[in-house]
Amino acid sequence: MLIFKMLKKDFLRKPSIFIVIFIFITLSGLLMSNGASLIVQLTSSLDIYFAKAKTPHFVQMHSGQLSKSKLEFWSKNNSKVEEYQLMEMISIPGNKLFWGDKHEVLENSVMDISFVEQNEKFDYLLNLNNQVIKVSAGQIAIPIYFKEKFALKKGDRLTLHSENQNIDFEIVSFIRDSQMNPAIIHSKRFLISNEDKEIISKIFPEKEYLIEYRLKNLADLGDFEGEYQASGLPMNGPSLNINLFKLLNSLSDGIVAGLVIILSLLIMLVAILCLRFVILSSLEEDLREIGVMKAIGLPLRRIKNIYNYKYLGMSYLALLTGYGLSLITNDFLLDNILLYTGQVPTNCQTIFLPFLAANLIIFFIALSLRIIIRKIGKISSVEAINMSRKSGKLSSFSFLSLQANKLWNLDLFLALREILIKFKLYWLLLVIFIFAVFIILVPYNIYYTVSSPNFITYMGIGQSDLRIDLRNSLTVKDQFSNLGQALASDDDIAEYSKLVTSKYELILADESRESMAIESGNSKDFPLSYLQGQAPSKDSEISLSFLNSQELNKGLNDSLRLVINDQEKLLKITGIYQDITNGGKSAKALFDYDSENVLWYTILLNVKAGVNIQDKLKEYKTLVPSARVTDISGYLQQTFGSTIRAIKQVAIIAGLAGLFISLFISLLFLKMMINKDMSSLAIMMSQGFSKRSIQMHYIYRTFFLLVSGLLFGILLTYSLGQRIISLFSAMLGIAKFSFEYNPLFLFVILPLTLIIAVVLTTIISLKSLSNENLINRITQ
Question: Could you report the per-residue pLDDT of 121-144, keeping only the tens digit for each?
């Protein structure tokens, strides 16, 4: 009852402050619960989704001829294999597909499109209810990626054009594809019936194969991959495994979950700072009660616990409110997960783990409370009275004496003097402004960076005006050669680079072997940003992606043993770069590529000044219809568009939260300061200071603190903020995430918005500063 009475007394004394602290803790608990729920839902839904799809444990893509009998014989006689199947995919040029009456062609899509029939054993293509899709003749199921991109719905028509005929399909379902769902994977499977596949395969003879395995024991995956590489079986394409599928499927939502949790922790820090101020203020006002409790022999520990439980109880109530709200708002953040992987049935895990994560907030608050309330035992009652009123000695600020002021406006000078002399009172508002700027800038800078054309360098790709990708088809060598000739004779092209990615055998320290994809070609005109070292300059050198170097435990000047043209070759590592494609594992070299094991072809090119990039894009798309020709901004949007949109949503939430914090803390802090200063303000008024002059003192103080908070917040964002984000992004292959910055937002929009908002809030706070109140205080 004593605790409840004290809490009620505090609330009636400072209701607005308790309400704002309650809101901050509620918001922190809400975001922490939502972030944890995102992670739980993502991992749980992926597990359920992968189980229903029976996702293969190992997949070898292959273009070209193969011996089905040899594959089947080897697979049946491998003791690690539980199930094996061969999926045949018909490659369809994007410019042959049109959506219904809109006639939107897919020729500028970065996606490779394949028509397939449903598998019999595993690797099922599922509908939005995670059920195995079945289609009849004339029907088609399309990937979710295209549903979202073109706002398609069931019953819409898809037309496949060919020279001799047009084939119409009715869209009857949308595909969840455990291998190819994410936009970052540039292959997409369309599901058709067996009858339609037989017809289409005669019109489009280009085929690609997925050689798929499920193992008896997933722990044998690494050994099995090595056995397959050494078997001499078809390998004309990349090899993938279930770990990579899970990583790529969780990439976008994992980034959002991490940002939401970081935002929650930052708001929690603001709440703790506010609690500190409230507790110290309460100690000043409760000294009589503390004295009485000590006089009657109440143990010091009991006195501390009274205050501890009082604020901890309020905090826990706020946290429960936040957790309750998260159950309502979860679906807003879970939209992408619900669409791409499906709903997870409510269970103990989906309820308890987010609740446990939210309780981490209480743990940090409880720890902070113990540190703050420890002051009760360290100081006497007299010291407690002065704890929040120490004004500092003017002698240490002699340069701030009124006599020393010759240049400054008097009101401006007095405001600055007050802040410096009583900095122990004002540092809290400064720190909160710093955190508010940090909360706004970090998510915004992440969004601005990932949506910038420069982000392409984080994908292991040099910046260029256009990018041309060629799939490994029957005629791809001729197409690649023809493109090279066309580029060489094109006067509109400033520079270009032909790059070929092939598969090679890497010999490890224990003499075991594994495959490695290496891009060969000179890309000096389209340089990457290297973490360490530089690009290879000789055919005996190689550079590695960050995750590749980590996994191989190799650094600068170390060597790699590769098998090139059936001969072992030692290559020196000259550089480490960042790459989030292909699971973050890639390499670049200058030696001649292995024409027998080519995975894909790439051409980067820049056009001369004055040449229209889109016109040039259309020209080369017409020249080689089967090629993917994209500009860099289009490539990024098609690959990371959904991730960018999700990060933008978090950035908007963070911006509103930062602005809310700045406004309400300014309002409450100033009200408390005005109440504290009422006596001294009355004296100032009696000495001739006008009400406007007194109001300007507070406006100047707030302005100084806000500008300082802006400067320190910007510095903190581009130092600590970048390091925090780099810790998370390193798991994806980005060891050093460098913020791109928008000068207009950073130096104009953000400062003006905060200054106008906070100054207006200050003026509103000063409305309580009436002549009548000051006169009453003088006459008391």
Answer: 999 999 999 999 999 999 999 999
